[in-house]
Structures are given as structure tokens and as C-alpha cells.
């Protein structure tokens, strides 16, 4: 139904200079990120072992090859020169930090509260709903934020708010119940709503006319890449190899929450500094 309405009512936007596909670039990026994720997973068994070292080197080579190809390609999948434009850099870094921060930690929440804290499936679902529903409602209300508050300011504030919420989720003990988690999830939910609303706008507004598809695609890719790496890192940090005792899992959660909060703060700092670049 929505597709039919969109076809009838939404005006098609076409680029004046259509761009070709970049299959080699897509393969290099996908395999490079895949090798990096595999290296992080294998590293849990020992960071000096041959397998993770080889995978890290392979990931670096593939990603460097991707950068070299994109710089020389007439029709790159991603025009790397866009990163010289501060608004585009801010939007992309914010998306990367969103994936590597709050999305990564929330992906682990349900499993953690069930295994380590003994909260049943319904309780875990309610906790996730508290974060996600708050985020959705806030994103809808974010349109009322005054125009004087720039998109980059909203991105930085959202990332800082997310970090505050995740810090509130640290310091857990093995007997913590769902009320201990709820305040941090609500704070993170409000901040996530502001962040997600601003990301969608800045992804398109930060690129020249005719590059909206590339801007949106780069932003979504950055978020997915950040979440893929973040989920892997959270799993490595939060679940010690060979130790699934509740106390160890709680300690791992506290460390992972601080780490993802730090990722969000680094993202906020980069976004804030990009505002002053010329």
C-alpha cells in the first residue's frame, strides 16, 4: 500500500549525472570489514596468536586497497573528498559512533539481563521497549527543536546524552533488578531519539545537491559498520573467554558499558571539533 501511494504521490528525484556501480569497491570494503571482525573474534583466544594477526593485516590491506581504489575511481562508491566537508564528516562520525556505542550495547542487553541477572524474557523485553519506545517518541518530537539549534549541535548533544545514559548502566551488581537499569535506558532513549532524527537530516543536508543518495548511503553504512564492529567488541569485552559465571558477566557488562560510552564521547568530540574547521 505504501509503495503504491509513494509511486503516485512522491516526485522522483534523479541525478543530473548518473553514476556507475563500483562492485570492486564494495567487495574490498565488505571483505576488509569482515576480516577485521574475524580478527576481533579470534583475538579472544590470544591476541598474539597467528590467526588474529594475519586477519588484522589482511583487513588493513583490504581497507587500504579500498581507499586507494575510491581515490582513483571515476565513479567511486564513496567520494572520499566529501570528508573534507565538516558537516559530512560530522554526520558520518556520529553514525559510526551511534552504531559502535548505543546500538552495540543494546544488542547485548537482552541476553545479559537474562543470563547474568536472572530477569525473564518479558522483563528483558520491557527494558528494551523502554529504550526503543522512548527513542521513537523523542525522534518524532525532535522536529520541534528550534532551527537555531544546528544539526551538528544536536548530533553532539545526542551522543553526549547517550554516553550519560550508558554510564548510568554501569556499577551493576549480580543482584541488580530491572529498576536499576530503567533510568539509564530512559536517558539513553531520549538521547538516541534526538540523535537518530538529526542523523537522517544531516546525512542528506551535508552533501552537495545530487549527492543525497551517496550521503544517505554513507551514513547508513557507517552506522551498520559501527554496530557490526561494536557488537563484536562488546561480546569480546563482556563475555570473558571460558568464563560465563554471573559475576564475570556483570563485570564484563560494566566494562562494556563504559567502553561504549567512551566511543560515544569520542564521536561527540569529533563532531564538535568539526564545527570549527574551515
Automatic annotation (TrEMBL):
- What are the transmembrane regions? 21-41, 47-67, 88-109, 121-142, 154-174, 180-200, 221-241, 253-273
Localisation: Membrane
Please indicate if the UniProt record lists Membrane as a keyword.
yes
Q: Name one GO molecular function term.
A: transmembrane transporter activity
Q: Which UniProt keywords apply?
A: Membrane, Transmembrane, Transmembrane helix
Bilayer topology annotation: Multi-pass membrane protein
Q: Has the keyword Transferase been applied to this entry?
A: no
Can you list the GO cellular component terms from the UniProt entry? membrane
Protein name, per record: Unannotated protein
Species of origin:
freshwater metagenome
Q: What is the lineage of its organism?
A: unclassified sequences, metagenomes, ecological metagenomes
